[in-house]
Amino acid sequence: MGASAAPLLGDDKEFLMTAGDFDEIAELALKHTGIVLGRHKANMVYGRIARRLRQLGYQCFADYLKFLRENFSQESTNFINLITTNLTSFYREPHHFEYLEKTVIPGLKQKSDRKVRIWSSGCSIGQEAYTIAFCLGKAAFPSSWDVKILATDLDSNVLDKGRAGIYPADSANSVPQDVFQSYLMRSKDQKNIRVKDSMRNLVHFKRLNLLEQWPMKGQFDVIFCRNVVIYFNRDTQKKLFNRYADFLPVGGHLFIGHSESLNGLTDRFESVGNTIYRKKY
């Protein structure tokens, strides 16, 4: 048995996944999502795709990959949804939202065109985008202003959850009490919370593959791209950060994740805080 045909995770697994199977999955993930999957991700990949094997009644990963190759246009969305990672929470990395409220938004309220655009890129189930909405809500922009948040993700399933704006009650533990009272409500059984319509109406959820053409026409005042590029290789990161710069005006802000950095990737931004950048040119 060649190395690529040997079981990658041992014989005790429900489904056989060979090294060759994993390499094909990793190649497809890189090509279609930009995500880099090393062998240390084998257990994660197995756990996610095994669910799809059960749904389809397949006995091994090779059978699923054959199906995927023959039906990629129909199955690609399911495959991408399984591969992408969707960890998020309200007020994650709270210093970002403190800076947004105290420094960025006061500047936005001075804009002469009375138009505000913020992009939550890689928005997952929407808690980041809604936290941005809470900050905008507290700023009390006049009703005559045109204020919108774009929330995009590759995974269509998480976008549906974001649009619904319904989350487990304990997910609101990080939300300040005054914000909760203003913008969230509990379900009758107290098990869930729901984002009020005043905030949901600010956020527009759209599916977007960051590696493909971006359909947006105008620029954004602020872009959040947090804990997204860590899954990409450096060449993809360089392209992505420079594309973000193209969609920001000089002085526009970019927020990235706590384990990410622009160092060596682009010189079009200056650091103005912990993982907070402002466009220079």
- Estimate the mean pLDDT confidence: 93
How many β-strand stretches?
10
Number of domains: 2
Distance between the termini: 56 Å
Share of β-strand residues? 15-25%
CATH architecture of the largest domain: 3-Layer(aba) Sandwich
What is the CATH domain class of the largest domain?
Alpha Beta
| Structural category | alpha/beta
SSE run: HHHHHEHEHEHEEHEEHEEE
- Largest sheet properties: 7 strands, mixed
State Rg. Answer: 21 Å
The H-level CATH homologous superfamily of the largest domain, spelled out, is Vaccinia Virus protein VP39
Point out poorly predicted stretches. Answer: none
Helix content range = 40-55%
Describe this structure in words.
- The chain has 281 residues and is of the alpha/beta class.
- The protein folds into two domains: 81 residues, Orthogonal Bundle (Chemotaxis Receptor Methyltransferase Cher, domain 1); 186 residues, 3-Layer(aba) Sandwich (Rossmann fold).
- 40% of the residues lie in helices and 17% in strands.
- It contains ten helices and ten strands.
- Strands 6-2-1-7-8-10-9 form a seven-stranded mixed β-sheet. It has a three-stranded antiparallel β-sheet with strand order 3-5-4.
- Strand 4 and strand 5 form a beta hairpin.
- Helix 2 crosses helix 4, helix 3 packs across helix 4 and helix 5 crosses helix 6.
- The N and C termini lie far apart (56 Å).
- The model has no long low-confidence stretch (mean pLDDT 93).
